[in-house]
Amino acid sequence: MGIYLDNAATSYPKPQKVIESMTNFMMDIGATSGRGAYETAIQSDMLVYQVRKGITDLFHFNDVKKVIFTLNATESLNVALKGILNKGDHVITSSIEHNAVWRCLKTLERDIGITISVVSCSKEGFTNPFEVENAICEDTALVVFNHASNVLGTLQPIKEIGEICRKYEIPFLVDAAQTAGVYPIDVIDNNINLLAFTGHKGLLGPMGTGGLVINWKGDIKPIKSGGTGGDSTYEYQPDYYPNRLESGTLNVPGIVGLGEGIKYIQKVGVNKIYHKEKELLEYAFNQLHEIEGITVYGPQDSEKIIGVISFNLKDKSCDEVAYKLGRQFGIMIRAGLHCAPTAHEIIGTKTTGTCRIGIGYFNEKKDIDFLIEALQKINK
């Protein structure tokens, strides 16, 4: 296969039990969850419930009903943003958001008339929580921040921002696409009202899985309506969770696979995963700085980021470097804007993009060594 260093996009490889569980479900059960009273349908129901429970345990939450399954973090963010915001509402967000947040907000600004305040950050991607407090006004209806930048890896002061939001009774939405499964998250302790996550990155599950954890008593309007398996004579979407936000047939095989990914993480331990990736980051930073003409972006401090490193080689486009790494050396990385143009604007790479390494739990130091050797050859 080669060397995979694109875990910020999708984790690879997956634990064997993730793959086996999905195959076994399709072969031995195969029934829809919430749509039948026969044995395999009940088994399907139980499997989905167990994964909801696993998610609450992982994020230190306490209400299984308020774990909503989606296709990915993008859908989770859209469910929250479009379900909460109304005409005239004011939103505060960071200056390093992924397009999953930014495009949704800009669309709502254009279509229904919300207003947006973007809190500035340093060139390393750090946000001052007091800047968030200063941006709050009478119409502020939501604060949305990513937990860690997918371009710089920079961790945001989520707990401190959450405390400010709680003080002003404003819901706080966190995009945990880059941190779920690789960095400790406590929904209650971190003052998070809504946590959006994807299954196919740090949670080691399959693509097409994700969710929204709702630690909030306010209403979220459904962005879709349809069958929920119960109350079928009622003409409107139910007002209770999870049915309120889950219409249509769930991706049960994917959810089952996600559940096995979470079991693997819980068995290993999030802290152990985080510390291993932190060691690889430190090693990578030391090795990368040996390359002549390289520019490495972001804090370059393993204590302040998750496993993402963006860089460029002098006089070479990021696309050229990524292509040669893949074609000549079998090393897989990401190149471009990474769906986060505002983050690239901060580091001055909006017109060029960057190469991006996405370090995962299954990477080893020898992968970094091979990458460095390849970059040295490309440089020459």
What does this molecule look like?
With 380 residues, the chain is of the alpha/beta class. It has 2 domains: 3-12 and 269-379, Aspartate Aminotransferase, domain 1 (Alpha-Beta Complex), CATH 3.90.1150.10; 16-268, Type I PLP-dependent aspartate aminotransferase-like (Major domain) (Aspartate Aminotransferase, domain 2, 3-Layer(aba) Sandwich). It has 11 helices and 13 strands. The strands form 3 sheets. Strands 2-8-7-6-5-3-4 form a 7-stranded mixed sheet, with helices on both faces. It has a 4-stranded antiparallel sheet with strand order 9-10-13-12, covered by helices on one side. Helix 3 packs parallel to helix 4 (99-111), helix 5 packs parallel to helix 6 (158-167) and helix 9 (318-329) packs across helix 11 (365-379). The two termini are 26 Å apart. The model has no long low-confidence stretch (mean pLDDT 97).
